[in-house]
Write a structure and sequence with these properties.
The complex is a heterodimer of chains A (347) and B (100). Chain A folds into three domains: 99 residues; 31 residues; 192 residues, no CATH class. By secondary structure, chain A is mostly helical. Chain A has 14 helices and no strands. Chain A is globular and about 65 Å long. Chain A is 77% helix and 0% strand. Chain B has one domain. Chain B is elongated, with a radius of gyration of 17 Å. Classes of the chains: A mainly alpha (347), B mainly alpha (100). At the A-B interface, α9 of A face α3 of B.
Chain lengths: 347, 100
């Protein structure tokens, strides 16, 4: 059995860099995205083989699933852009560039490449240096974590590290996701859903079947995170995937969610995380130093809130912009129904 | 128990060639529709055998229930996505392959 598994491992080790190279070298963006999703799935298998089920779950849900969906939505946006007048701007710009004096054109590229290379080397040296400088005890941090598990309020070591020992880091991660959503909302509006000539009944019933199940799974993942593999990021990713499915099927209810509610859902996790961090100081500890007796409850509360926000954030990133205001929405609906949209509204 | 375990191994070994033939079909068939056919048909039966084999080897009932749930979800997911891919291809006016 071990020889079979080591054969499998060797295949994984060979396949991962090969896939990575293929996806970077592919001139066809769609193919690159498909390869990226396969890379994510293999990567998730690799994490399983490395006995890191938490990372494997996160990689499968976020790395392969949602990032793939994000790439595909970006790709569709690019394709649509090429059809519209943006293309003209782009072509004009290219033409301008071509007409510029050749001396100026030629110099810009090597300088950019040189700068990029310099930055890369700089960061590599910095990383390597910090790796050398950091003193690591022989067993890694494992014994230290195991020794303190009694105080964390959870049984899973991963959750203990993420939400208790280095809660500050996780707080910043949640903030980064929030900033990403903020950025996409500031830059663009949600794109108009194309009126479908024929509704997709299979997709609609698939969504009806899967979305409730996904919500249960998300709740289960957050709950089980305190004792086994799971947690806010995994649960949030499943919620986000449910959101993507709802957006894909263009369920009318989703479009009618008031924008204020969406905003609060986006803010809920980061805000609650931040407030509990400050509340811990108020009670008399340090930032994010939960009271010992109720640490488990604090962590569960924070995880539940952040899971909701992560889910909404990922779905919002997929939607690719801030939602239309109600007045604009009605207009869009009128336009859609005028231009021959059939019972798409009758869900 | 050993009998059930061996029976499970046999089932898994029966299932694997379906995956292999599905993959060969995906790589060798001429157009998107035939490739979808190869992929979903073969994978569904193959996965059925693999799940059956694993269920026979399972030590607890809840593991069997989870395996069945996985099988059902993959069936629903793969048939629905097969339909959606074929639908998208048809709407892009991709003609089905014919021998001529």
């Amino acid at each position: 059995m071990t020889s079979v598994m080591s054969f499998f491992d060797i295949m994984l080790v060979l396949a991962l860099p090969w896939l990575g190279w293929r996806l970077l070298a592919s001139p066809d963006l769609f193919r690159a995205v498909v390869l990226f999703i396969s890379l994510g799935l293999l990567m998730s298998l690799t994490w399983v083989r490395l006995h890191a089920p938490d990372v494997a779950l996160a990689e499968a849900a976020i790395g392969a699933g949602l990032t793939g969906a994000l790439f595909l939505s970006a790709l569709r946006r690019l394709e649509r852009m090429q059809d519209s007048e943006r293309r003209l701007d782009y072509a004009e710009k290219r033409e301008e560039e071509r007409q510029a004096p050749p001396a100026r054109r030629r110099r810009s590229k090597p300088i950019a490449y040189g700068l990029a290379l310099l930055l890369l080397v700089f960061f590599l040296v910095l990383l390597g240096w910090s790796l050398v400088k950091t003193s690591v005890s022989p067993g890694g941090l494992g014994p230290a974590v195991t020794g303190q598990m009694g105080q964390t309020g959870v049984q899973s070591q991963v959750t203990a590290v993420l939400l208790n020992f280095r809660g500050y880091d996780t707080l910043l991660e949640v903030m980064v996701l929030f900033l990403a959503a903020l950025g996409s909302w500031s830059l663009t509006r949600i794109r108009q859903p194309l009126p479908e000539e024929v509704a997709a009944p299979v997709l609609a019933s698939l969504v009806r079947l899967l979305v409730p199940l996904m919500i249960i799974v998300a709740g289960y993942l957050v709950w089980i995170g305190s004792s086994r593999a799971g947690g806010a990021f995994q649960g949030g990713a499943v919620l986000g995937a449910a959101g993507v499915l709802l957006l894909l099927a263009d369920v009318t209810v989703v479009r009618q969610i008031p924008s204020a509610l969406l905003r609060w859902a986006l803010v809920l996790g980061p805000l609650l995380f931040l407030l509990s961090a400050i509340a811990c100081m108020w009670i008399g500890g340090n930032l994010l130093e939960y009271p010992r007796q109720s640490a488990g409850a604090w962590i569960l509360l924070i995880e539940s809130a952040t899971a909701v926000s992560i889910g909404v954030t990922l779905a919002a990133l997929y939607a690719g912009g801030r939602p239309l205001e109600p007045s604009a929405l009605e207009e869009a609906g009128e336009v859609a129904s005028e231009s021959g949209g059939d019972e798409g509204e009758g869900e | 128990m050993a009998f059930l375990h061996n029976l499970g191994t046999v089932c898994i070994l029966i299932g694997v060639p379906f995956f292999v033939s599905g993959t060969v079909g995906l790589l060798r068939f001429p157009d998107i529709y035939t490739r979808l056919h190869a992929l979903t048909k073969a994978d569904n039966v193959g996965l059925g055998f693999v799940v059956l084999g694993l269920a026979l080897q399972a030590e607890q009932w809840n593991t069997v229930a989870r395996l069945l749930l996985i099988w059902l979800l993959v069936l629903i997911g793969s048939s629905a996505s097969c339909h959606l891919v074929a639908r998208a291809a048809l709407r892009k006016k991709i003609q089905p392959w014919s021998r001529s």
